[in-house]
Amino acid sequence: MASSLASPSPTSSFIRNKKDLGVSAFPSTSQIAIQKCKKQASKKIVSVMAPQQSERKPATTGSVKTGMTTTEKILAKASEKPRLSPGDNVWVNVDILMTHDVCGPGSIGIFKKEFGQNAKVWDSEKIVIIPDHYIFTSDERANRNVDILRDFCTEQNIKYFYDIKDLSNFKANPDYKGVCHVALAQEGHCRPGEVLLGTDSHTCTAGAFGQFATGIGNTDAGFVLGTGKLLLKVC
């Protein structure tokens, strides 16, 4: 009897140890399953995530230096800089500014407000104005927009104004060239190595001709009309 009291059974020892350690030391089957699912899920997420891309920075040390992209070369030439790098802010000389009957009147209004009612554009032969959005309508407001372009082109002696006057007979409109982005290319305004800005989000399609082309807003266009320059950031 004495020996049995001195040697407790394995069962009683297990119960005592469990109480001493606490229930948390013996996780349930459901807790183990949840932990396994979390580990498997985290592995799958990591496996499908694309590697983080670091910002491109030019090499400045060693015998090999990072070359400029095509855009950087074009903007370096247009800003009269020997070299450009991501993050640079530069004043760029514009080769062509295009606007149409949607944004043209607003751009002209800003130009006149900031530079004066009698101000002259920086270069009348580097501005291309193409009415192509509001021409197929009898709406008075739409017609007013086109009339503003006509008056401005006459006032500023704009060489490249592709107007349309007779909607009933397209053959009677030798100056009309169609959609602005098509006309820019077909009339020779898209040239490799140049900077072309336009008040239309699709202006960037002209980049297919090896030039830097992008859309801008009326405020920027009004500034370009008066100066022929625009401040751009190299990204």
From TrEMBL:
Superkingdom of this protein's organism: Eukaryota
All copies of domain Aconitase/3-isopropylmalate dehydratase large subunit alpha/beta/alpha, residue ranges: 73-233
Regions that span the bilayer: none
Alphabetical keyword list: Iron, Iron-sulfur, Lyase, Metal-binding
Family annotation (InterPro entries): Acnase/IPM_dHydase_lsu_aba_1/3, Acoase/IPM_deHydtase_lsu_aba, Aconitase_4Fe-4S_dom, IPM_dehydratase_rel_enz
Gene Ontology biological-process entries: oxoacid metabolic process
Gene3D superfamilies found in the cross-reference section: Aconitase, domain 3 (3.30.499.10)
GO MF entry, a single one: iron-sulfur cluster binding
Name of the featured protein: Aconitase/3-isopropylmalate dehydratase large subunit alpha/beta/alpha domain-containing protein
Organism whose genome encodes this protein: Gossypium harknessii
Lineage, top ranks: Eukaryota, Viridiplantae, Streptophyta, Embryophyta, Tracheophyta
